[in-house]
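User: Fold this one for me? It's HTH marR-type domain-containing protein.
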Amino acid sequence: MSKKPQDLAELARGTTGALTRRLKAESRNITSLPAPQQAVLARLQLKPDQTSAELAREEVVRPQSMSRTVMQLLDAGFITVHPSPDDGRQRLLRLTPKGNSTIETLRLGKNDWLRQKLHTLDPTQRATIAQAMSLLKSLLETP
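Assistant: Here's what I get for HTH marR-type domain-containing protein.
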C-alpha cells in the first residue's frame, strides 16, 4: 500500500464514501424514514432548537426542500416547533420523544452492524483501525 499523500487521500475518500453508503443502506433496514428526514433528526439530536433555515444550510439543501422535510416530520410527530425566546418570529425545532427514540434506534442499529463487522477482525487489526480513526478525526479538527 502506497504511503503517498495523494494515494492515501484517494483511499480515505473512497473508503469513507463506501462506509457512508453502507450505513445508509443499513438504515433502510431499520426505519422507513427517508435519508433527509433521518439527517434532520440526527442534527436536532446533536443540536436542538435550530430553525429550518439553519438546517437547510447545514444539510446544503434549498430552504424549500428543508421546509417540506420539516413539515413531514412535524406531521408525523417526530419534531415540535416553538418560538425563539430571543426572537419570537423565529420558529425553533426540537425532537419529540418519538423523534429521539427513532434516531437513537437508528444510531444503535448502525453501530451494531459496524460492531459486528469489527468483531471479525483480530485485536491488532482493530487497534490499527482505532489509530487510523483517531488520526482522521484529528485531521478533520484541524482548520
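One thing worth pointing out: The CA atoms of residues 13 and 19 lie 10 Å apart.
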